[in-house]
Structure formats: C-alpha cells, structure tokens
Amino acid sequence: MIRRASPTPLTTRVLLSCAAIAAAGAVLLTVANLTAKLLIPVFPPSAYLLAGLWAVPATLALALLRSPGVGVLTGLIAGVAMTPFSPQGASVILATLWWAAACEVPFLLTRYRRWTLALHVCGGGVAGLASIVVSVATGVLPALTFPAQVLTLALSIAAPVVCAIGGVALAGRLRRTGVGAQSAASGAASAPSEPSA
After folding, report:
1. Residue 65 phi/psi, 5° resolution?
2. For residue range 101-145, what is the model confidence (pLDDT) as tens digits?
3. Is residue 123 within 8 Å of 103, Cβ to Cβ?
4. pLDDT digits (tens, 9 = 90+) for 25-82
5. What is the DSSP string of the chain?
6. Which residues of 3-29 are buried (b: 16+ CB within 10 A; e: fewer)?
C-alpha cells in the first residue's frame, strides 16, 4: 500500500526530530571514525564495514518521519555537529550530505509516494555504489589486488544495505512508542497506512 508524504514536512516537530536524529548520528559516526582509525591498520576491510553506518541517520529520519527532504536535512545537521570533532573539518558535511542524498534518491524518484523497506534497501545500495565511485575516483580500489577488490565491492554494497535495514527496524520500534507518530499520521489522511517495514 501507499503512504503519501506529509503535505507540511518542515513543521517544528519534524525539524526537532531531524536535529535529535542528527545529534545521535553524529555521535555514532564520530565513534565509528575513531574506531576505524584503530582497526584499519589491522583489518583494512573494516573501513568498508563501518562506512555503512553513514547511511543510518538519513535512513532513520526517512523511515520515521516519512517526509520529503528529511534525510538530507538530517545529514546536513549531523555533518555540522561532527565538524568540531572530525579530522576532515567542515568537509565532513559534504560526506554526510553525500550519504544522505544517496539514501533519499529512491524516494525522490518515486515522488515520495511510497515508504517501503525495498526503497530503503535501494537507498542503501545507492549509497554503497556512491562509496565505490569515490573509491575508484581516489584510486583506492584500483590499487588493490583482485581478491581485495571483490571483498571491497561486496562490503561497500552490503554494509549500507544492512545498516539501512537496521535503521528501518529502529524506526519501527520508535514509532511503536509514539515517536514520529504525529508526523506519520499527517500523511495518513491522503492514503491508507502500511506496515513499518
């Protein structure tokens, strides 16, 4: 079934929800960055495993609030919050926006008329493909041996897809406690509801 997007997506409630998700996402990604620095010298593929976490804030916002642009907005706020703690400085904002936009592409293409698990999985896949493009453009992927390239490609796609599924599951749990229910209900007037997944 179809659930249309909220006709007034940028309410105060939605903005505050995006900010809260972004703050939690900024903490998660900052810890992931620090962890990656420790693990990469020992196990280089860990970089691609942890990279999937970058899909979580946008996916959670999209799955919970079901409004156009909330993924990108959450990514922007998360990037700003991460800036003081990131070795990349303000450029981390571009990274969070990149991942958030990738997660939102499938919903944009369907004009925000469907909010299904399949579209979230596609968003994770798009984010993974975007990560591969960056790896190729920066010369990281071509420099690897063939087995390492295969592993990198597999992890680059699988990690954000798994994290996207996790984000949808978390959104379902939060919605059952009443979080995001008002935002979701505002879109229900124009279409029947669907299961969280």
Report:
1. -95, -25
2. 999 999 999 999 999 999 999 999 999 998 888 888 888 888 888
3. yes
4. 999 999 998 888 888 788 777 788 888 999 999 999 999 999 999 999 999 999 999 9
5. ---PPPSSTT-HHHHHHHHHHHHHHHHHHHHHHHHHHHHTTT-TTHHHHHHGGGGHHHHHHHHHH--TTHHHHHHHHHHHHHGGG-TTGGGHHHHHHHHHHHHHHHHHHTTT----HHHHHHHHHHHHHHHHHHHHHTTTTTTS-HHHHHHHHHHHHHHHHHHHHHHHHHHHHHHHTTTTHHHHHHHHTTS------
6. bbbbeebeeeebeebbeebbebbbebb
pLDDT in the model for residue 180: 66
- pTM value is 0.83
Q: Kindly provide the b/e burial profile for residues 129-139, where b requires at least 16 CB atoms within 10 angstroms of the residue's own CB.
A: ebbbeebeeee
What would the two tokens of residue 14 be?
């939605």
Which structure tokens are listed for 94? 């571009």
